[in-house]
Amino acid sequence: MPPHSNQEGNTTALWRISGMGMELVGGMLGLMAVGWFIDRWQGTSPRWTTVGAVVGLVAGGVNFIRRALALNKAETEKYRRAHAGGSKLPKQVEARPETDQR
């Protein structure tokens, strides 16, 4: 089986990113709907709807960032393997505390 073309790889990455965005919106809307039902049941309109929207946005945002970082790491490793003999991306430099050498 021939390796995937660059265009197929880009399409796959685009679908992953689109899915991440849909999860963000879906989580927010889902928790907002739960809040709306609680508001209707308790008669506390818009309190729980707002709480659900905020919690959904925060949870979805955390999940989005986590998945985006994982996708970036995977793509960086793929790039490094493809360009093993040529130019490489610089490796991460860890910050080290300065020490006084007196």
Structure, explained:
By secondary structure, this protein is an all-alpha fold. 72% of the residues lie in helices and 0% in strands. It contains two helices and no strands. The protein has helices at residues 6-42, 47-82. Helix 1 (6-42) packs antiparallel against helix 2 (47-82). The termini are far apart. The mean pLDDT is 83.
Keyword list:
single chain; 102 residues; mainly alpha; 2 helices; 72% helix
Structural class, by secondary structure, is mainly alpha
Average pLDDT confidence is 83
Helical fraction equals over 70%
Describe the main β-sheet briefly.
Answer: none
- Unreliable stretches (pLDDT < 50, length at least 5) are none
- Output the radius of gyration: 22 Å
User: How many beta-strand runs?
Assistant: 0
Q: Determine the strand fraction and express it as a percent band.
A: under 5%
Assign an overall shape. Answer: elongated
Distance between the first and last residues' Cα? 62 Å
Number of helical elements: 2
- How are helices and strands ordered from N to C? HH
Regarding quaternary structure, what we see is single chain
Compact summary:
The chain contains 2 helices and no strands.
Reconstruct the topology from this structure:
Layout: H1 6-42, H2 47-82
